[in-house]
C-alpha cells in the first residue's frame, strides 16, 4: 500500500512535466518510454534473463501490439495537454476502466452487470458536462481547443484500455520484468516511427528538456506505472483501480500550485461525476 501511494503521487506529476516541456508530445513520449526501458533493463539481465524464454511467437506478437497501443496512449495523452486543462485531460485519460469494461464484454464475453452499466452512464454524463463547460468557458490553456484536447484524452483512455485488455492474458504466463521490457521496447519503436513520419527532431534539446525527459522516465515511468504493475501482485486489483483515481486529484492540485491553472466550476463538477462513475465501474467489476 505504501508503494501504491508513491506510485499515485509519481503519476500525478506527469501532466506537469509535460506542460513544462517545449518538446513535441511524441518526442516527450518517446524519451519517457526509452529511458524507462533502459532503467529496467539491468533487472532483466541480472535476475530475469531466463524469463524471456516464456515468450512464444504468438505471445511476442501480442506484446508488440500491446506496446503499440501504449504508444498511441502516451502520444494522445501528452498532446491533449496542449489543448485542454490538466484537470480535464488527466480525468478523461483515467477513464480507461470504462472502456476496459465495454471491451471485456464485447471481445471477452464478460458479463456487464447493472452497477457497471450505471457507472459507465454516470461517467459519460460527467465527461459531457466537463467538455461542455470547458467549451463554453474556455480551458485554462492559452490558444486552447478544449473539445479537441478532451477527444485526444479519451483516445488515450481507449488505447490504455486496449493495452490492459490485450496484455491481461499474457501477464498470466509471463513475468513482470520481461513483459514490461518487451512492451516498452515495442512502444519505444512505435513512437520512434511516428516521430520520423512526422519529421520531428529527436536531437538538439537543451539540458532543461533532457532533465524533463529523465524526470518523466524516473517519476511517472519507473516509480509510477512500473510500481503499479508490481503492486498488482500484492494488492487486490480493485484497490489499485480505486487508488489510481487519486491521479486526477493530485495532478489538478499540482497544476493549481505550479502552473496557476485553476479549473472552472463545471470542470470540477464534471470531473467529480466522472470519478464517481469510474469508481462504481471498478467496484462492480472487482
Automatic annotation (TrEMBL):
<feature type="transmembrane region" description="Helical">
    <location>
        <begin position="239"/>
        <end position="259"/>
    </location>
</feature>
<feature type="transmembrane region" description="Helical">
    <location>
        <begin position="84"/>
        <end position="108"/>
    </location>
</feature>
<keyword id="KW-0812">Transmembrane</keyword>
<dbReference type="GO" id="GO:0016020">
    <property type="term" value="C:membrane"/>
</dbReference>
<feature type="transmembrane region" description="Helical">
    <location>
        <begin position="25"/>
        <end position="46"/>
    </location>
</feature>
<dbReference type="Pfam" id="PF00892">
    <property type="entry name" value="EamA"/>
</dbReference>
<feature type="transmembrane region" description="Helical">
    <location>
        <begin position="147"/>
        <end position="166"/>
    </location>
</feature>
<feature type="domain" description="EamA">
    <location>
        <begin position="148"/>
        <end position="282"/>
    </location>
</feature>
<dbReference type="InterPro" id="IPR037185">
    <property type="entry name" value="EmrE-like"/>
</dbReference>
<feature type="transmembrane region" description="Helical">
    <location>
        <begin position="120"/>
        <end position="141"/>
    </location>
</feature>
<dbReference type="InterPro" id="IPR000620">
    <property type="entry name" value="EamA_dom"/>
</dbReference>
<feature type="transmembrane region" description="Helical">
    <location>
        <begin position="178"/>
        <end position="198"/>
    </location>
</feature>
<keyword id="KW-1133">Transmembrane helix</keyword>
<feature type="domain" description="EamA">
    <location>
        <begin position="6"/>
        <end position="130"/>
    </location>
</feature>
<protein>
    <submittedName>
        <fullName>DMT family transporter</fullName>
    </submittedName>
</protein>
<feature type="transmembrane region" description="Helical">
    <location>
        <begin position="210"/>
        <end position="232"/>
    </location>
</feature>
<feature type="transmembrane region" description="Helical">
    <location>
        <begin position="265"/>
        <end position="284"/>
    </location>
</feature>
<feature type="transmembrane region" description="Helical">
    <location>
        <begin position="58"/>
        <end position="78"/>
    </location>
</feature>
<keyword id="KW-0472">Membrane</keyword>
